[in-house]
Amino acid sequence: MSGKVIFLLSVALSSAQQxxxxxxxxxxxxxxxxxxxxxxxxxxxxxxxxxxFRATLAFxxxxxxxxxxxxxxxxxxxxxxxxVSFWFVVTWPDDAARLVDGSEVELAIRKSxxxxxxxxLLNDRTLEFVGIVPTLAAPQLPATxxxxxxxxxxxxxxxxxxxILVVSAAVQxxxxxxxxxxxxxxxxxxxxxxxPPKPLKNGxxxxxxxxxxxxxxxxxxxxxxx
Amino acid sequence: xxxxxxxxxxxxxxxxxxxxxxxxxxxxLTLPNPGLDQRISCHEDLDRMEKEEADSRPKWDNKAQYILxxxxxCIGLGNVWRFPYxxxxxxxxxxxxxxxxxLVLEGxxxxxxxxxxxxxxxxxxxxxxxxISPYLTGxxxxxxxxxxxxxxxxxxxxxxxxxxxxxxxxxxxxxTQCPLNExxxxxxxxxxESSTVDYFFYRVTLNSSSSISDxxxxxxxxxxxxxxxxTVVCICCIKGISSSGKAVxxxxxxxxxVLAIFLVRGLTLKGSFSGIQFLFTPKVEELxxxxxxxxxxxxxxxxxxxxxxxxxxxxxxxxxxxxxxxDAVILTVVTGLTSVYAATVTYSxxxxxxTEKYDLCFHDNxxxxxxxxxxxxxxxxxxxxxxxxxxxxxxxxEAVLALDLKTCDFQKLLxxxxxxxxxxxxxxxEAITKMPASPVWSVLFFIMLVCLGLxxxxxxxxxxxxxxxxxxxxxxxxxxxxLTVITCLGAFVITLLFALHSGIYWLTLFxxxxxxxxxxxxxxxxLVSVVYIxxxxxxxxxxxxxxxxxxxxxxxxxxRFLSPLIVLVILIFYLITQARxxxxxxxxxxxxEAFPSLSSEAYPAWINGVIFLLAGVPTAIVPMYALCRxxxxxxxxxxx
Lengths: 226, 640
Hints:
The structure holds 2 protein chains of 2 kinds.
Chain A: H1 2-19, E1 28-32, H2 34-38, H3 47-64, E2 75-78, E3 85-90, H4 102-111, H5 113-119, E4 127-130, H6 146-189, E5 205-208, E6 211-214
Antiparallel strand pairs in A: 1-3, 1-4, 2-3, 5-6
Chain B: H1 2-17, H2 36-39, H3 43-52, H4 63-74, H5 77-81, H6 83-89, H7 96-121, H8 125-132, H9 137-166, H10 189-193, H11 196-205, H12 220-237, H13 241-251, H14 254-267, H15 272-280, H16 290-303, H17 310-315, H18 324-373, H19 385-395, H20 397-403, H21 410-415, H22 420-433, H23 438-471, H24 480-495, H25 503-513, H26 517-547, H27 553-580, E1 584-587, E2 599-602, H28 607-639
Antiparallel strand pairs in B: 1-2
């Protein structure tokens, strides 16, 4: 009786092994990079960890197929390597000889990817399902583009500068007008003075109270030596 | 006897009143230049005007402002992204020999010439040449045109830098992420194949088309940034040197501060010393290559801002007895030292980036080996990689081949894309993303570039607005503010050309042709005009009057002989190389085979007309104006 049981178990085991082969069409290769992810806090890979993986995957399959009670035994693992990589296939709970379609397995894994990752303290890159591309996180776009804010600040400063310029020019003009009015009032009371010297042009003659100086004629003529 | 003596004295007196004759000694040749004394003020007049402050020219608040303005003008974007590349590609430390030599023999004499002539004649570039001889006004007009064309594309570069500056105030920086494609399974193909920084520059910032003929439309982020750039320049230059002189306190000093911060940061990063080593390792055999000397000479010429007219203008606001010889020497030393300083900082960052990329490439190869042969994770380290590869190759060569391992070339990583816009917008932005606290470094870097560019632009705008006023294009009553605003507005409209989708190709065209040959020609004519038309004797006397001592034999030899010769040689070789080369340009074409590298395309035929406008017209104006004036004067003489 026990011999029959052992025989049946070994048949079942061998058939299971035949279902899971490296390169199986409905199977996936899993690769874990625990050292890269956790460094000093890395845990050692053991059969217990493998059991957790099979259980997590069964959980993912249950999540995907409503009503189907996947068990740990439905997740068959083979070709374990020292890399920490292995192949797995998933069988139906009611029919251990039939494999679940690869595309369905992929969809199940995609749905629960985050949970699977967090069970092992890994991420999409360090827990690789070879052939299943992780859905990429969309780049974070803030509501108002920050560059517009910075641009607004700069243009505001420049605009303020222009306003200050115009205002100060107007204020200066008003001040000059006031001074002129005051000067004229003062001048009218005093004697007539000599007009202030005007800016010079070359060759012009300046009217100096002491005489006339011809600025076009200078003493230092250039004489080329023969 | 008495009659002979009297006639002899009369003969001498007559000689003393005739105009200068051509002398026998060729080195002191002076061409006839009648009426020079009527056009310029003599020394007594200058002293008198200075004492009474009779002229209404603007003045510098203090000497420091003048020196800072000149330093800011000379130190520009080229010191950060052109000189380090030339240094590295022409023999590293050995390049410093031709650079420093030509700095002293070609740059310094021309610098002193422009300073002294501006300070003596107290006018902008058009006024100075018109005073020396009305036939030389063409030189001033050419300087103005070149300054304007260069200002156009230079400010566009600043607009691009401003765009990156505005975008640096966020974490993560926008050029670290690729946008997703439609079904969110991967990134946009263009970004995936090239890199995030390439995509951000060519697609997001510029939206560049694939050829110069394909204009596309206006890309509005660039229009907005151009608006910002031109308004900033306008408000800084609006009152001439009274406003720009205050702005240079920031724009000239800030780059040095930021470079110091980056130096400290750079030296603490891994791999920076390999970058500096790569930069300065001398390859003495490069000195025999003539293009090394040509590139050194051209770099000295452009980096000093010679022949743009800005330096003459700035120097004309100095007091008459300012020591311009000392200024020229100071400026030369500062420029040389700053070039080396900026190159060191740049290459420390480049070394860091190259090391990071190399380590990444190496790590990828190790991962491929480990994954391919299912070995435990820590079995292969960078040091054991080679032996492990050999072992695996001997046992299973086909599998190793199937892994398609990449070759990681450190030297190639150090020398890729390290010139021009590629350095600032691709290499540096990528390096910054790898540093901790990236937004801070990004803000610092781009504000430094903005300041470097702005301080150069102040000189450019000065070299455009003052000649426009002297030529009489605007009514004399209009204030300086109105001229500046109109110039900036007009320039903004023209630079919308660079906001098109093909803008980057137009900018490269301007960079190549607008600021190269015309400047060399004007520089050569400047030397010839001052030495032979104004008269080297008169010029020596002027410098002696202004500074108190006659220029030494060094200045005499370089002014009369060495500097014109060097400039002429560079000009001729430049023309020859340009004429021989086929006109091609690099395009960003996602559909080309070379993608993500830029592919080389030939310019369309109508580009020759544009090149003629950019390079030919400013160069031709110098002789053409003289010729037209000669014909006009002859015509007037014949009629009147």
